[in-house]
Write a structure and sequence with these properties.
This protein is of the alpha/beta class. The protein contains 21 helices and 6 strands. It has a 4-stranded mixed beta sheet, with helices on one face. Helix 21 links the parallel strand 5 and strand 6. Helix 18 packs antiparallel against helix 19. The mean pLDDT is 85.
Amino acid sequence: MNRFTTFRADFAASLVVFLVAVPLCVGVAVASGVPAELGLVTGIVGGLLTGLLPGSSLQVSGPAAGLTVLVFEAVKEYGVGGLGALVLAAGALQLAMGALKLGRWFRAISVAVVQGMLAGIGLVLIAGQLYALADAKAPGSGLANIGALPGLVTDTVRSTSALSALAVGAGTIAVLVLWPRWQRAARILPAPLAAVALATAAVWAFSLPVARIEVSGLLDAIQPPGLADLGNLVEVEVIGTVLAFTLIASAESLFSAAAVDRLHNGPRTDYDKELMAQGAGNAVCGVLGALPMTAVIVRSAANVQAGARTKASRVLHGVWLLVFAAAFPAALGVVPVAALAGILVHAGWKLIPRRELVPLWREHRGEAVVLSVTAIAIVAVGMFEGVLIGLLMAVAKTAWETSHVHLEIHTPDDEEEPVLVRAVGNATFLRLPKLLDQLDTLPAERDVELDLSGLRHLDHACGAALTSWAEQHRRSRRTVELVS
């Protein structure tokens, strides 16, 4: 394939990715509680900077729905300037982790925890955006939003303007679901852009009384963090938020890279370099006071499916975003907020692994429990705490499954000979009650020879308990011989 053919393929793919990215960048920004222009800034940095750097050749970076909930809470707590400091710190951490070759270790994170994290984010995102569908303000986050849904229904039914906004949002979701089935049209115009365009046209045609995006201008929207914002980075709560940003953004980017690698036959991702590329992009986004970025599977898949061959496609998509943000910012002011809320409700629904959950429950019930508990914890107590709970559960489940131990018992007919007991497997404190129960079932009047040579691992708790059991039974005038 010659250079011209390759560039033509990348040029065409970049236009497709640009059309997919515009409504998603704006929608994520609005849902995050920041000016719409900041979503475009993150998309521009993701294209022009991260797109140029080595790592993954075809995946596309920008603001992601997966971080919307966390960003919204951070903006509410620390302001837009504080958000910039958080993103800058997260980017610096990603750069350090990439330099230390830690990128590959993100592949060791339990898939159930990642899926549970995304499912929890999806549930919280849907619960929050249901209010935006009706041009209402969400009362809080997580459980508060879910608990107030009956009141939202009542208020919406009583308000003509709320019903109009709901119709716009529901229509947007319907287009997102149905548009891809019209394959000829979907190849020309991506579903998110088609949905927003149709919703905007309907609002204009029928003069519907719905809220529209507030536009402040690209330069006015950029609010770099101040010295006070940077000084807050030493606080414990802020450090926790930075770690949450880093963990979620890195995990989502690297899992996206693995998924994108399965879609094409080109060069594979270098995870450490990709983590550094994401870190560089987030550092710049932090300096500009913009949203954090991750690699986004929707845009990345669109890039591959549109025929992209090299990283030029994602760089060009950043160029188109820059041209749009600089030349046509007023175009955002006619877009109804309910349409963007519809896009994010649809995005949140896609984050929930609905099809995988039932087969997972049948085949790997423990993994399904980890997934569900992680999602519920995120909804109930928060993002960072929920992910930690999920990780701890995954570690506990793995420890339980790998600590399998059983006793092979042989009882000779001659009562003068000892009962032969051979322990096999991994003896840890998790299996200690079962192990001692089995030993207590041995004949009380017989001597015992306990062979521990079949154990691959014997922790201190088990060793001490077995020694204590042997001493106890020696006092009852039986011989207990430990063989290791």
